[in-house]
Write a structure and sequence with these properties.
Bound molecules: fe (ii) ion
CATH superfamily of the largest domain: Hypothetical protein af1432
CATH class of the largest domain: Mainly Alpha
CATH topology of the largest domain: Hypothetical protein af1432
CATH architecture of the largest domain: Orthogonal Bundle
Order of helices and strands: EHHHHHHHHHHHHEHHHHHHHHHHH
Strand order of the largest sheet: 1-2
Length: 410
Amino acid sequence: MSDQIDFRQVVHALSDALDLVGIDELQHGKRVAFMAVECGRAFGFTDKTLDRLYHAALLHDCGVSSTTVHHHLVSELDWAGSEDHCHRGHDLLIKHELFANLAPLIHHHHTHWEQLTDLDINNETALINNCIYLVDRVDALVAQQGIDELLFCKDEIRATINKYRGSFFASLLVDVFMDVSANEFFWLTLQPRHLNLYLAEMSLDSQVQQINQDCFLRIANMFANIVDAKSPFTVEHSHGVSRLAKHLGLLLELPKSSCDALEVAGLLHDLGKLRVPDEILEKPGPLNQKELAIMKQHSFDSYQILRRINGFESIAEMAALHHETISGEGYPFHRAGLKLSKEARIIAVADIFQALAQNRPYRTSMTGDKTMAILEEMAASNKLDQEIVQTVQKNFSSCWQAATNSADEG
Ligand SMILES: [Fe+2]
Ligand SMILES: [Fe+2]
Ligand SMILES: [Fe+2]
C-alpha cells in the first residue's frame, strides 16, 4: 500500500462500491453527481461548493447497504421510510474528518422543500440537499424508463418533476433543472460510456488531495461498517477478519507493511457483497445453483473496485483471492498453490474462521472445538494453508478473541 493515496480515487472507489447495491441499476451515484453538478453550475455555485456537491452526490447513498431499501428508492417517487438512510449516511460521514463537511449536504436529501425550510440549516446547505433530492428523483424516473429511451421520455420526466415545484423541490431549483435538462446533451450523458468520460474530466478539475495510510484506514473502517450493516448476520464480519488477519500476520512474523495491508484487505475483502441481494445473504438454508452463482461474483467485484486505487494492487489481490483454495478449486481465478501469496492465504483462513464463529441465517455459531476441526479438515484436504491453520491452532484463544472480539469460545 503506497504511503500517499489519492483522495479522489478513494471517493470514486467508494462510490463504485455503493453503486453495487443497485445490483443491475448501476452508477446511480455517478448519474446523480453529474446532474447535481450541471444544476449547481447553472445555479452559480462557486468551484469550491461544486467540488463539495460533486463528492457529496457521489456518496449520497452511503446509508444504503440493503438491496431491498435500494429497490424502494428507485421504484417509488416518495417512500415513507426514505429519510432513514439519509440520517444513517450523515452519521457515517460526520465521524470522519475528510467527509464531515459533506455530511450536512446529504442529511436531508429526501426531505420535501416545504419541510426543509423549517429546519435550522443555512440556505445553501438546504439548497444542496434539495438539489441532490431533485436529481435523485430524476434518476429514479430514469431507472423506470430505461437509459436508452431517455430522449423519447425526457419531457415526461421533466413534467413529473415540474409537478412538485414549490412542494418537494425549491421553485428556483426546478427552474434551473428545467433549463439544464432542455437539451439532449443532459440526457445522453447519463449513458454509461458518456458518463464515465464526463466524470473523468470532472475529477481532473477537482482538487488533488493526498491522504496517508492512517487516514485511509479510518475510511476503510467506515466502509467495513457499510458492508457489515447489510445483514444482522454479517455484523462485525469485516472487522473480525481484519483483526484476525493482522494478528496472524504478526504471529507469522510478516513485515509490518504486510500486516498493515492485511488489516485493510480484511476490512474491504467483502465490498462486493453489497451487490448480493438481501434475500440470498439472509436465506435460512443452503443456496441453490443460481444463488451460488450470484454469490460467487462478490470477490471479483471487490477486486475490480480496489484495483482502481493507485498503490492498492496488492490489497486488491488479497481481497480478490479470499475464496481461492490451495488446490485451485476456489473462485474466481482458480488460482492454486504457489500462486497464492501468504497474505492471500491468511485472509482466506481469517474469513472462514470469522464466519464459522458467527451466527449465520442457516446455523448458529460454531464452538471453538468445532471451528478448529473444520479448519483442520480444510487444511488436510488442501483447501487452506497448513502452516497458517497450525498457527491458529497453537494460538487459538487469541485468534478467537481477534475474530469475535470476545473471549467466550462458544
Ligand atoms: Fe439516491
Ligand atoms: Fe467473501
Ligand atoms: Fe468474508
